[in-house]
Amino acid sequence: MTFICFKFHTKMHLDVINFSHNIFVVKSKMVKLPFLLFATVLVCAFSTQALLHSCPYGYKLANNNCWPTCPKYFQDDGVYCRKPEAYARGVGHATMSLCETVHGVDACEPNNGLFYAMCRPGFRAVGCCVCSPTCPNGMKDMGGASCQKNSFPAHYSV
Length: 158
Description:
Layout: E1 2-10, E2 23-33, E3 36-47, E4 52-54, E5 59-62, E6 65-68, E7 75-77, E8 80-82, E9 87-88, H1 96-103, E10 108-111, E11 114-117, E12 123-126, E13 130-133, E14 140-141, E15 146-148, E16 152-153, E17 155-157
Antiparallel strand pairs: 1-3, 2-3, 4-17, 5-6, 6-16, 7-8, 8-15, 9-13, 10-11, 12-13, 14-15
């Protein structure tokens, strides 16, 4: 049997010590910030699990490593994030002013003598007419439909 502790921050103060299910509050400290009151709470438990693995916000635990979660519209494929579908950005316009009349001021860019609507944030132009999703910072573009995640070992507490 192992003694495991972890710390978390909450907006409410835990006054009552709960001994049910072998879990209890060891320490609770109030922190006063402008306009907010937070409690830092250390919770401990007896467990048959040897180690408590934890990852920072935005990461999830898998095989003792912390893996980033995939961004919105990306599909989580374990070690990879599958990109959302590319989209067509329409036909080119003969002049910048004609393109901006249709798509808005500063919303167009030149490509091979014609002017096209710029791609949405998180996408880049591929050739004249297609906007393809880009990989989030810290992920390797696998040259096609996926981005490879980077992982790091999880934090261990005893």
